[in-house]
């Protein structure tokens, strides 16, 4: 079939147009990957594709919505299980069957199922390229922020354009990264393939390599093949280089605007270089799928359903007060980093307790760090990177986001405490009726003038005594149970503790598990340091890595 003409493109079925009411699910074979099925979605000979299973449904819908909002409709989603296929079909999302019938549960990084997903990707590329279409292949844990197709079309000579894990800039504008200076792995979460002979040859060899050895990680296999030969440059201008077998023309998408989880969430490299980012991929993070979702929420680029923004019981938030000296004075080192983070941990611990007592969802504050977190030893920030100090660090740098969101047994850990990301109230999806239902709480010294827990002044401010206990909180705030948002002016000395000691014990049991590690000091094994939710109860607490193997465990 010839590439689709513009007239044919005009007939492309709009995305999000749901099947008519009362219609039946078409038979599964209708969704088989064929040239004709892909042809229906192609525009300018390009198809944009991702794939996943039902566990990633919300990521996939977010991915699709970003593209359709950008006017990109030449897309297809591969469904690895029938549950996802049917769900997407009824939502009007173009879908095809990957026939792998994987489990619908989340796939952990590095697990056998994760490796199977890696095989699916290369099989898919190897299947689509012979159809004669260009393929922009994406992981589901990335989102598009700007239409990438005009950018990719600039490099029409390229056989493959790939993203990378590069954390230091090699260019300061929107040109391709300098292949001679990129030392990091090429990341196959975002890459563009053209149906040329050398690209097809690479896809075929990569597929055969992975099917012959199920222990090879797909990305490592791709890197090994492409690096068989690297250079010379294709020309003086484009930034492309010959790679693989010496005929493949390869380009490296700039990490400043085709962002990794580091260049976007930690360095904000695109902001510093005054560039517009095209994409963000949630790599370089520490809390599994929940951590990825939370980072995208912090960046306000994840699409949640309306009920996420209007939680039963309402929300609790507070104004974090951090002394300037903790943020800016002295060197940026382990001591100053932990002093700063511990100061915030203590306030968040108090806020979690109050949220638990009032049965409200806690909106986390922005978290400031002086040092970066990685999974290997480093001097504090990566040399040559654009990480500013201090910086607002993702929640998963300090907190175990996956544990915070997990349903822990109530009899051992007390009631669950829901959380939201720090940017929650700035999100355009936040309903007006939630933002307008707001009570400010000002902490005051008990006994001082107007420090009563039962009167709101004309400005809608409640003055509330510091060092209150569980009963005082419940009594003071029960008249405000219909108020959507309660904001405390501070969490310093806001809560004296639980009156019910069994409840206190369960709460401590829960929140001790909420903090993770900082990683990693140089010249010490192990090099990580455990955060401690109750650091202030240990007068001699110091930020030190475990001194022996026996010491190497969290503080619970």
TrEMBL record:
<feature type="region of interest" description="Disordered">
    <location>
        <begin position="1"/>
        <end position="20"/>
    </location>
</feature>
<dbReference type="GO" id="GO:0005794">
    <property type="term" value="C:Golgi apparatus"/>
</dbReference>
<protein>
    <recommendedName>
        <fullName>Nucleotide-diphospho-sugar transferase domain-containing protein</fullName>
    </recommendedName>
</protein>
<feature type="domain" description="Nucleotide-diphospho-sugar transferase">
    <location>
        <begin position="72"/>
        <end position="296"/>
    </location>
</feature>
<dbReference type="InterPro" id="IPR053250">
    <property type="entry name" value="Glycosyltransferase_77"/>
</dbReference>
<dbReference type="Pfam" id="PF03407">
    <property type="entry name" value="Nucleotid_trans"/>
</dbReference>
<dbReference type="GO" id="GO:0052636">
    <property type="term" value="F:arabinosyltransferase activity"/>
</dbReference>
<dbReference type="InterPro" id="IPR005069">
    <property type="entry name" value="Nucl-diP-sugar_transferase"/>
</dbReference>
<dbReference type="GO" id="GO:0052325">
    <property type="term" value="P:cell wall pectin biosynthetic process"/>
</dbReference>
């Amino acid at each position: 079939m010839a590439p689709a003409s513009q007239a044919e493109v005009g007939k492309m079925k709009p995305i999000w147009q749901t099947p008519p009411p009362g219609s039946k699910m078409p038979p599964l074979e209708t969704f088989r990957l064929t040239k004709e099925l892909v042809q229906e979605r192609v525009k300018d000979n390009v198809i944009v594709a991702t794939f996943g299973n039902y566990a990633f449904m919300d990521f996939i819908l977010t991915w699709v919505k970003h593209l359709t909002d950008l006017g990109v409709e030449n897309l297809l989603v591969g469904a690895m299980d029938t549950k996802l296929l049917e769900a997407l079909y009824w939502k009007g999302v173009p879908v095809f069957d990957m026939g792998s019938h994987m489990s619908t549960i989340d796939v952990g990084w590095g697990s056998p199922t994760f490796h199977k997903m890696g095989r699916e990707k290369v099989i898919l590329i190897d299947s689509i390229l012979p159809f004669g279409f260009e393929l922009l292949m994406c992981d589901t844990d990335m989102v598009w922020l700007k239409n990438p197709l005009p950018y990719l079309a600039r490099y029409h000579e390229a056989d493959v354009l790939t993203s990378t894990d590069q954390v230091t800039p090699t260019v300061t504008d929107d040109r391709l990264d300098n292949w001679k200076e990129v030392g990091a792995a090429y990341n196959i979460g975002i890459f563009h393939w053209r149906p040329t002979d050398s690209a097809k040859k690479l896809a075929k060899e990569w597929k055969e390599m992975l099917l012959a050895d199920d222990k090879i990680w797909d990305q490592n296999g791709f890197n090994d093949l492409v690096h068989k030969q690297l250079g010379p440059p294709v020309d003086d201008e484009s930034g492309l280089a010959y790679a693989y077998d010496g005929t493949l023309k390869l380009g490296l998408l700039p990490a400043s605007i085709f962002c990794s989880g580091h260049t976007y969430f930690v360095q904000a490299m695109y902001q510093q270089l005054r560039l517009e980012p095209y994409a963000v991929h949630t790599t370089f993070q520490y809390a599994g799928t929940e951590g990825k979702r939370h980072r995208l929420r912090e960046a306000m680029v994840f699409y949640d359903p309306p009920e996420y923004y209007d939680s039963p019981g309402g929300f609790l938030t507070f104004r974090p007060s951090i002394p300037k000296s903790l943020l800016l004075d002295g060197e940026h080192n382990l001591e100053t980093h932990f002093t700063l983070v511990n100061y915030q941990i203590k306030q968040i611990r108090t806020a979690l307790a109050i949220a638990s007592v009032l049965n409200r969802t806690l909106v986390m504050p922005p978290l400031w760090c002086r040092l970066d977190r990685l999974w290997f030893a480093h001097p504090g920030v990566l040399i040559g990177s654009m990480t500013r100090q201090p910086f607002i660090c993702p929640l998963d740098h300090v907190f175990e986001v996956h544990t915070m969101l997990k349903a822990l047994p109530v009899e051992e850990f007390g009631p669950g405490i829901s959380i939201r990301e720090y940017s929650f109230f700035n999100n355009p999806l936040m309903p007006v009726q939630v933002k307008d239902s707001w009570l400010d709480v000002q902490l005051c010294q008990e006994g001082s003038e107007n420090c009563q827990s039962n009167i709101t002044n004309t400005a809608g401010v409640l003055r509330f005594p510091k060092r209150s206990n569980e009963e005082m909180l419940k009594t003071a705030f029960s008249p405000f149970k219909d108020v959507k948002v309660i904001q405390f002016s501070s969490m310093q000395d806001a809560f004296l503790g639980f009156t019910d000691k069994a409840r206190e014990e369960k709460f401590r049991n829960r929140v001790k598990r909420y903090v993770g590690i900082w990683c990693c000091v140089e010249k010490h094994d192990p090099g990580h340091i455990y955060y401690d939710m109750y650091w202030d109860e240990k007068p001699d607490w110091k930020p030190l890595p475990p001194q022996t193997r026996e010491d190497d465990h969290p503080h619970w």
